[in-house]
Amino acid sequence: MEPIVKRPYYHFENPNRVDKEKKGRGFSLGELAKAGLTKSEVRTLNVNVDIKRKSVYDVNVEALKKIKEEGKEKLEQAKKKKMEKNKRKAEKKKASQRKE
Question: What are the start and end residues of every segment in region (Disordered) (predicted)?
């Protein structure tokens, strides 16, 4: 089964044809910043990032905001899981220091 990955669309013009829309490789870092997403949130939401792209399209920023809203529950679960993991690490470290 193929993983579900969110990718942007971009438009390009060809003088001989009508404007086309094509699926891109990923969102630019500028688009991620404008949408208010961090790199860890992007990984959690399974969104592709194209680090070579420098352009920022409002359509893609809006798409990212929509993805962020839809994935809020997933982000909260990931945050809780990370906090529990850090808590267990801290407890383990304290236990090892007591043994010494």
Answer: 70-100
Assigned domain for 89 exists: no
CB-based burial of residue 37 (10 Å sphere; 0-12 exposed, 13-18 middle, 19+ buried)?
Answer: buried
Annotate the chain with three-state secondary structure: CCCCCECCEEEECCCCCCCEEEECCCECHHHHHHHCCCHHHHHHHCECECCCCCCCCHHHHHHHHHHHHHCHHHHHHHHHHHHHHHHHHHHHHHHHHHHC
Q: Residue 90: what pLDDT?
A: 86
38 is a domain residue: yes
